[in-house]
Amino acid sequence: MTRPLWSLTREPAIYVRSWDDSESALVFDERSGDTFTLGSLALELMLMLDEVGSQPAEALVAALAAQLDAAAPADLAGLVAVELERLRTRGIAAPQDS
Questions:
Q1: Looking at the domain assignment, is residue 67 inside a domain?
Q2: In this structure, is residue 51 part of a structural domain?
Q3: Residue 34 lies in domain
C-alpha cells in the first residue's frame, strides 16, 4: 500500500490574515465566500507544503517533531492527521497517491 503525498491544491483562492500575538489566523476563501479560522498547526502545515512540496504525513510529523524537539506532543501524528483532514475538507490540501 502506498502512502499518499499531501500537497496544497492550486485551486483555492484563499487569503490569510494572522497577528503576531495570535495562535490562529483568519482565512477567507474567495471561491465559497467562507471565512474561517485555522490554528497554528494547520498554518505550519500549509507553510511546509508550500515550501517543500508534496510530502507524506509521516514526513510532515517528523519535520514538526524535529522543530519542536522535546516540546513535541506525544500524539503529534494524530494532531497532524486531524489538521490535514481539515485542510482537505476546506479544499486547501489534498492527498495524492505516491
A1: yes
A2: yes
A3: 4-92
Q: 8 phi and psi, to 5 degrees?
A: -75, 145
Number of domains composing the chain: 1
Q: What would the pLDDT profile of 9-37 be if each residue is shown by its tens digit?
A: 876 588 889 887 778 889 998 888 999 99
C-alpha 26/C-alpha 19 separation (Å) is 9
Spatial distance between the Cα atoms of 93 and 5, rounded to a whole number of angstroms: 10
Is 98 inside a domain boundary? no
pLDDT on residue 3? 83
Q: Which residues contact 8 (CB under 8 A, 6 or more apart)?
A: 46, 49, 50, 92, 93
Give 50-92 pLDDT, tens digit per residue. Answer: 999 899 999 999 999 998 877 778 899 999 999 999 999 988 8
* CA distance readout (Å), 14 to 1, 5, 10, 32, 90: 33, 22, 10, 10, 10
